[in-house]
Amino acid sequence: MIALRTVPDHIVRPPYARPGGETGERPGLIKSDALIGRMRRAGRVAREVLDEVLAAVAIGVTTDELDRVCHEVTIAKGGYPSPLDYRGFPKSLCTSINEVVCHGIPSARRLVDGDIINCDVTVYLDGVHGDCSETVFVGTPSLVHKVLVERTYEALRRGIEIVRPGVRFNEIGRAIERYVAPFGYGIVREFGGHGIGELFHMPPNIVHAYERRERLKMQAGMTFTIEPMLNVCDPRCAILADGWTAVTVDGKASAQFEHTVLVTPDGHEVLTLCADPRPFFQR
Ligand code: MF3
Ligand code: CO
Ligand code: CO
Q: Cβ distance 260 to 39 under 8 Å?
């Protein structure tokens, strides 16, 4: 059992991290203008925290140190680090290195030259969550890692690009699959994007590969994440004994990028952007 980092009393916790636990309420898929205003702020803060975490990535740094940065910066901005105590997750940040697909648990593992690491930050602020992640290089990447990361970012960009009212949710996966097929990458299906707002994860579930049977269409006011995970080869994952860490079954690398997106009347707005819209690895 890992001792959880502490959160000061003035920080409002999400229901799952309160003594009473979660209520059974199911919030709607279309957000009110007031809720959207709160989501813009939660999204912006999540992005600011992610930028500080990524700036701390360096050879020799432990993932626990990145977790500490995430935890302290989130609290300093008045937010709660959503992963902490979410369904038993023990840390405030997810750190997924190399063959880890997602949900890596920060530890004493030190970053070494040539690693790629995804840092996934979610912040609960003013009753809503904002969720974003990026993959960055530690030192100098191999060519395989470099192009994987660049193409995964482009896959996210292409998934976001098609978002507007009336579009079926499976167009996201279709756009991503069309783009990555020539590279022979495996698109992870076991984890997907998700509706987000008052809840960390809520409908719809967004598959990043083409899903024929999906009928649901986007409507203005919906908020959800797009967060493709691309594996160098095999798309399948295995979960380690810690119950969280998802790894590729072939041990080869995986990369991921994530944004929280709002459907607007004439297109979309990315809620987890700030002043510099470029991903960290391009700055
Ligand atoms: N942030 C992740 C996502 O994009 C979820 C992490 S769940 C946790 O959906 F418990 F591992 F934090
Ligand atoms: Co997410
Ligand atoms: Co996330």
A: yes
